[in-house]
Design goal:
The complex is a heterodimer of chains A (395) and B (407).
Chain A: E1 26-36, E2 39-48, E3 57-62, H1 64-76, H2 95-106, H3 113-147, H4 155-162, H5 174-196, H6 205-255, H7 258-330, H8 334-388
Antiparallel strand pairs in A: 1-2, 2-3
Helix pairs in contact in A: 2-3, 3-6, 5-7, 6-7, 7-8
Chain B: H1 15-21, E1 30-40, E2 47-56, E3 65-71, H2 72-86, H3 101-109, H4 114-135, H5 138-141, H6 144-151, H7 166-184, H8 192-242, H9 246-325, H10 328-404
Antiparallel strand pairs in B: 1-2, 2-3
Helix pairs in contact in B: 3-4, 8-9, 9-10
The chains are: A mainly alpha (395), B mainly alpha (407).
Domain PX (chain B): 28-157
Keywords (chain B): Coiled coil, Protein transport, Transport
Family (chain B): Belongs to the sorting nexin family.
């Protein structure tokens, strides 16, 4: 059973499966969102009977940067090192869409009023779709946190959900962005070093398999996501192409001799239908395929990060072992070395245990999400193909 | 990338039915096929030879089925001869396919890639349509040059058709001069039908050009969609291979297969987009240019008649002057010239009436053919679009249970 959004929010693209268990003691959703010039304001609504909260139902307004702050807080928290941190939602990006609307507004005198209206309609639908997607991405992030038995009890999470004022979290400045970037490089280098460390053996087959699997999976899903995006763009392109063709055919129809009028009109009508069809195919592929692939690309990266942390812990454990041996041979500071080694061992075991569970959850989440989306994709494609191909009216 | 040998749909394979239901009595039991493009020679002197096969029951031909080998310049030569004989008296001579220096160079140089195969196929189909149109013209069918083209095994090489030859440049210059002349002819149109028709063809020309440009964009983008779909299919297959959940892995492989099949559909549709729709439009854009040319010739014919009348008037004035001046030998000369120019005026009037009559008949025939062509092709194209949708339904219906089977 997957955690789901309320039936009331019918049009929200919810392609991601959140919660395999279905616990409703903490329900979070984005009940409203407003797009202002260069930012989006999300209304985060919480319903909960948990004793921690002052009320059972309350809302706050949050912006994208606050979501990022929350995500980073989780990542930096040592307590959650053994968990897959749900990937942060991507920044809302209306640039491309806005540019296109502007270009359309600037006007191309060669297109008719009808064509203009259709193109405007397409672009507005596109803008709306992007908006809905960004809401869904932010919502899914919160809902995964709310569904996770450990993550949902985080203090920062409570603050995020409940604190009425804005969190005064400014966006990262250039230095911080650069810092983040460098940290990633250091992390990759570190990982490379660790794996080549002599004596560091992966004793657990499960993790050995997971590591190989995730590395390959992540690369391939990223590839698939990129290519799915391109297919979607092509469909949109085709939909745009149909507009002037349909218009030209109609125009020919009105001027032509009687014997040809009907043929041209029929063709014009078919192209108009195909246009709508292509548009819908594009948007459905976007939601059910591209977005899902993109989400699991990020989620698999989060899983990879978890493996890295565990590996780091293993390396620390190995180092602590070596230090203990050295201390014992020299018979100096044995106590400290012993307690440090025990600490590292416990940490490593803790991480391994929770990582195992997390990775299995990841798999079941992934499978059920793919299943749901592939079924919905097929059903939608069928619906569209059936709608666009009625053969009753041909001459 | 596998090379596919797909040949363009034969648009005119309805000619037999056409013959059977032909109401106005024109019976054209003749069918032309252009096939088997073959590269002859090497390097820059290489050329493509096409097999031209004629199937007919008409008695003017010695056999009922025969074929010859022709090269592109032979077709151009044929057109050139027919145009020089029939255009200026008002017959709408179908234009030959256009030259393409870039396209041909690639073929000559020996690039065996898909774009040169496509180019050759495009040309082959265009040559076939050209010949079909030409033989369907009752007057042109009787022409000995056409028969020689279809029948004789050896044909003198048409050299003046080379793109940058002297003759080619001369033709270009003449065309330009014609255009200038047309602007200065102010004809008193006594027959509204001609003015109306010219306007109609002008409108049609503009509309078709606009539509053609949009369809060319469609063809291009559909090809892109096909390429992107194929790429996605591959990456979906790879993802399926990586996936360690068996049922999901299987479903992803199936998805990859579905996408591959859909790519095929896109390719076929792009084919139809081009060969049915786009090429029809571009053929008619050039045909209409030929129609406009015929109207221009009528104007020139009128001009000639008009000029003859003016000259006759001048000669009469001269005669009158000579009579007044009483120069008997000059008077005789003037009388002779008057007779000469009276004859020319009469001829001019006859020519003008003849070309007007021919054009009326030709335009009627042309329009009837155009309506048939467009209708046939539009219906076929509509069917192709509907067919694609139906195939899509089949593919997704087959995939759905696979997706549901993911446990």
């Amino acid at each position: 059973m997957e955690g789901r959004q309320e039936a009331g929010k019918e049009n929200k693209p919810s392609s991601i499966s959140v919660d395999p268990q279905g616990d409703s003691s903490l329900q979070v959703e984005i009940s409203d969102a407003v797009s202002e010039r260069d930012k989006v304001k999300f209304t985060v609504q919480t319903k909960s009977c948990l004793p921690h909260f002052a009320q059972t139902e309350f809302s706050v307004v949050r912006q994208h940067e606050e979501f990022i702050w929350l995500h980073d807080a989780y990542v930096e928290n040592e307590e959650y090192a053994g968990l897959i941190i749900p990937p942060a939602p991507p920044r809302p990006d209306f640039e491309a869409s806005r540019e296109k609307l502007q270009k359309l507004g600037e006007g191309d005198s060669s297109i008719t009023r009808e064509e203009f209206a259709k193109m405007k309609q397409e672009l507005e639908a596109e803008y709306l779709a992007i908006f809905k997607k960004t809401v869904a991405m932010h919502e899914v992030f919160l809902q995964r946190l709310a569904a996770h038995p450990t993550l949902r009890r985080d203090h920062n999470f409570f603050v995020f959900l409940e604190y009425g004022q804005d969190l005064s979290v400014r966006g990262k400045n250039r230095k911080e962005l650069l810092g983040g970037f460098l940290r990633n490089i250091v992390k990759s280098a570190d990982e490379a070093l660790i794996t080549s460390m002599s004596g560091l053996k992966e004793v657990d087959d499960f993790f050995e398999h997971e590591r190989t699997f995730l590395l390959e999976y992540h690369t391939r899903i990223r590839d698939a996501c990129l290519r799915a995006d391109r297919v979607m763009q092509s469909h949109k392109c085709l939909a745009d192409d149909y507009i002037p063709i349909s218009a030209a055919l109609s125009s020919l129809g009105t001027q032509e001799v009687n014997q040809l009028k009907t043929s041209f009109f029929k063709l014009a009508e078919l192209f108009e239908r195909l246009r709508k069809l292509e548009g819908r195919v594009a948007s459905d592929e976007d939601l059910k395929l591209s977005d899902m692939l993109r989400y699991y690309m990020r989620d698999s990266q989060a899983a990879k990060d978890l493996l890295y942390r565990r590996l780091r812990a293993l390396a620390d454990y190995e180092n602590a072992n070596k230090a203990l041996d050295k201390a014992r041979t020299r018979n100096r500071e044995v106590r400290t070395a012993e307690s440090n080694q025990q600490l590292c061992c416990r940490r490593f075991e803790r991480l391994s245990d929770s990582a195992k569970q997390e990775l299995m959850d990841f798999k079941s989440r992934r499978v059920s999400s793919f299943r749901k989306n592939l079924i919905e994709l097929a059903e939608l494609e069928l619906k569209h193909a059936k709608g666009g191909g009625t053969q009753d009216t041909w001459v | 990338m596998e090379s596919k040998s797909i040949s363009a749909p034969v648009i005119f394979d309805r000619s037999r039915e056409e013959i059977e239901e032909e109401a106005n009595g024109d019976v054209f039991d003749i069918e032309i096929g252009v096939s088997d493009p073959e590269k002859v020679g090497d390097g820059m002197n290489a050329y493509m030879a096409y097999r031209v096969t004629t199937k007919t029951s008409l008695s003017m031909f010695s056999k009922s089925e025969f074929s010859v080998k022709r090269r592109f310049s032979d077709f151009l030569g044929l057109h050139s001869k027919l145009a020089s004989k029939y255009l200026h008296v008002g017959y709408i001579v179908p234009p030959a396919p256009e030259k393409s220096i870039v396209g041909m160079t690639k073929v000559k140089v020996g690039k065996e890639d898909s774009s040169s195969t496509e180019f050759v196929e495009k040309r082959r189909a265009a040559l076939e349509r050209y010949l079909q149109r030409t033989v369907k013209h009752p007057t042109l069918l009787q022409d000995p040059d056409l028969r020689q083209f279809l029948e004789s095994s050896e044909l003198p090489r048409a050299v003046n058709t080379q793109a940058l030859s002297g003759a080619g440049i001369l033709r270009m210059v003449n065309k330009a001069a014609d255009a200038v002349n047309k602007m200065t002819i102010k004809m008193n149109e006594s027959d509204a039908w001609f003015e109306e028709k010219q306007q109609q063809f002008e409108n049609l020309d503009q509309q078709l050009r606009k539509l053609h440009a949009s369809v060319e964009a469609l063809v291009c983008h559909r090809k892109e969609l096909s390429a992107n779909t194929a790429a996605f299919a591959k990456s979906a297959a790879m993802l399926g291979n990586s996936e360690d959940h068996t049922a999901l892995s299987r479903a992803l492989s199936q998805l990859a297969e579905v996408e591959e099949k859909i790519d095929q559909l896109h390719q076929e549709q792009a084919f139809a987009d081009f060969y049915m729709f786009s090429e029809l439009l571009s053929d008619y854009i050039r045909l209409i240019a030929a129609v406009k040319g015929v109207f221009d010739h009528r104007m020139k014919c009128w001009q000639k008649w008009e000029d003859a009348q003016i000259t006759l008037l001048k000669k009469r004035e001269t005669e009158a002057k000579m009579m007044v001046a009483n120069k008997p030998d000059k008077i005789q000369q003037a009388k002779n010239e008057i007779r000469e120019w009276e004859a020319k005026v009469q001829q001019g009037e006859r020519d003008f009436e003849q070309i007007s009559k021919t054009i009326r008949k030709e335009v009627g025939r042309f329009e009837a053919k155009r309506v048939k062509d467009f209708k046939t092709v539009i219906i076929k194209y509509l069917e192709s679009l509907v067919q694609t949708q139906q195939q899509l339904i089949k593919y997704w219906e087959a995939f759905l249970p696979e997706a549901k089977a993911i446990a």
